[in-house]
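I hope you will forgive my troubling you with a question about protein structure. You will find the record immediately after this paragraph.
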Amino acid sequence: MTPYKLPNGRVVTPAAVPDIYGPGAVLNVGNVVMKVTNYGIIGNPYTNISSDPSGQWPGASGIEYLNFIVAGGGGGQSHRHRSRRRSVA
């Protein structure tokens, strides 16, 4: 991992490598087989670089019932600080 130096002098590194390349960890619970990544993605939108199942049922049948779901979040500062307003999406 390549460290990154912030303007305040702190050095940070990424927490984890994205689990999207090649065959990776696949959730196998009951009769459902699906990929869950550390990007906040359930399923496999990366079918061009990974052969993992998106959401197969029953078991490893090859029948896909899910493409992918993305979990997202956001935040921002209150409107009273208009001159320094920032948002995250």
Notes: The radius of gyration is 19 Å. The mean pLDDT is 79. The longest strand covers residues 26-29. Residues 20-69 form one domain.
